[in-house]
Design goal:
Helix content: over 70%
Number of domains: 1
Number of strands: 0
C-alpha cells in the first residue's frame, strides 16, 4: 500500500504547488488591473489640469500620446496575466482530478483488501467449524 500513498502524496504536493502558482498569477493579474485603473485616473487628473491651466494644456497632446503607449502596454500585460491565469486554473483542475483518481484507487484497493481479509476470516472460521464438527 506504500506506493499508492506515495502517488497520493505526490499528487497532493502537485496540487499545492499549482495552487500557490495560481495565487501568484492572480496577484499578477490584480496588479495589472490596478495599474490600468491608475493610468486612467492619472489621465483624468491630467485632463482636468490641462483644462484648468492653459500653459499645461500645451503639453496635453504629448502626454496623451505617451499615456496611450503605457495604456496599451498595461492592457497587454493584463491580457497576458489573464491567459496565464486561465492556464494555471486548467492545470490545477487537471491535477486535482488526478489526485482524486489516486485517492479513489487507494480507497478501492483498501476496500478490496478488507473484503479479501473478510473472506479469509470466513474461510478460517468455516475450517474451524468443520474440524469441530468432525471432532464430535
Amino acid at each position: 500500500m506504500g506506493w499508492r500513498q506515495s502517488l497520493v502524496r505526490l499528487a497532493d504536493y502537485e496540487v499545492e504547488q499549482l495552487q500557490m502558482r495560481l495565487a501568484e498569477v492572480v496577484e499578477k493579474r490584480t496588479a495589472a488591473q490596478l495599474k490600468l485603473a491608475m493610468l486612467h485616473a492619472e489621465a483624468e487628473a491630467e485632463r482636468a489640469r490641462a483644462a484648468a491651466d492653459l500653459q499645461t494644456g500645451w503639453y496635453w497632446p504629448g502626454y496623451i500620446a505617451a499615456w496611450r503607449v503605457r495604456r496599451d502596454q498595461a492592457q497587454a500585460d493584463l491580457a497576458a496575466a489573464e491567459a496565464e491565469e486561465a492556464g494555471a486554473r486548467d492545470a490545477l483542475a487537471q491535477a486535482f482530478e488526478e489526485l482524486k483518481k489516486y485517492e479513489q484507487l487507494m480507497e478501492s484497493a483498501a476496500e478490496a483488501e478488507r473484503k479479501a481479509a473478510a473472506r479469509l476470516d470466513g474461510a478460517v472460521l468455516d475450517e474451524l467449524g468443520s474440524r469441530r464438527a468432525l471432532g464430535r
